[in-house]
């Protein structure tokens, strides 16, 4: 966005207190770090809560969890994964399809720590210039990966997947792919605002498609209270999703229904006028 204030959320902090203005950020960080701790409990303490990595894991030695994009790539190559992997991907798809829009991106993905740090530093340094690339690029990349995997017979994305590289780096220590993580950070900091998650990442695109009809949604409870401070637009990693419910036509839905919303709750945190809440998409009270 063109005129970014450095302190989106300051008014909410002053008016409603630090906890109100940061509570969803706090819960997200706690969730992200708890999941990381579940991976680390095995290697460090011999008690395996999550065995594996962010691409494929076993919860409590019982419940398989598989990355939908890797499974889709495998299927595209013509390889049918084993039953455990297929069960794992079914569990993941059902969970995220029902729960909320791109919950994986906002609450689970380890790379969110990197991209949020870049966005925070960008705001602090007042970096305003941003290269323009379409947000639909991630869906084109997703399609290209699947077609490319089908043609070559390789899991193409896994050669450069910075999400699993960062997950491995956090769990097993820095590796030769650590440069990928630094590249994502620098790309988001200097080249494109919210560049990686908001424009490039095909894993996020996959979860966007999976969660497009999910239940948990951001709801605008009273847009007349909005004083157009723009803090929500400035903090939101996908600000285009706010336009319809907040500044759209009269008959526009009160919900953020876009599949690109990552359900991070930061718009709720930073809004001093308490315009937003988390709700389910069928709760039409107040309309
Ligand atoms: S909803 Fe309105 S008042 Fe609340 S943060 Fe967004 S622009 Fe500001
Ligand atoms: S609309 Fe709110 S919950 Fe959705 S991505 Fe933006 S800040 Fe996060």
Automatic annotation (TrEMBL):
InterPro entries listed in its UniProt record: 4Fe4S_Fe-S-bd (IPR017896), 4Fe4S_Fe_S_CS (IPR017900), Electron_Trans/Redox (IPR051684), NapH_MauN (IPR011886)
Keyword Repeat: yes
Signal peptide from the UniProt entry: none
Membrane-spanning residues: 33-50, 86-115, 136-157, 169-192
Domain 4Fe-4S ferredoxin-type stretches: 217-247, 253-281
Keyword Iron-sulfur: yes
One of the record's GO molecular function terms: 4 iron, 4 sulfur cluster binding
Listed GO CC annotations: plasma membrane
Keywords of the record: 4Fe-4S, Electron transport, Iron, Iron-sulfur, Membrane, Metal-binding, Repeat, Transmembrane, Transmembrane helix, Transport
PANTHER family hit by this protein: FERREDOXIN-TYPE PROTEIN NAPH (PTHR30176)
NCBIfam families documented for this protein: napH, PRK09477.1
Protein name in UniProt: Periplasmic nitrate reductase subunit NapH
Organism for this UniProt entry: Bisgaardia hudsonensis
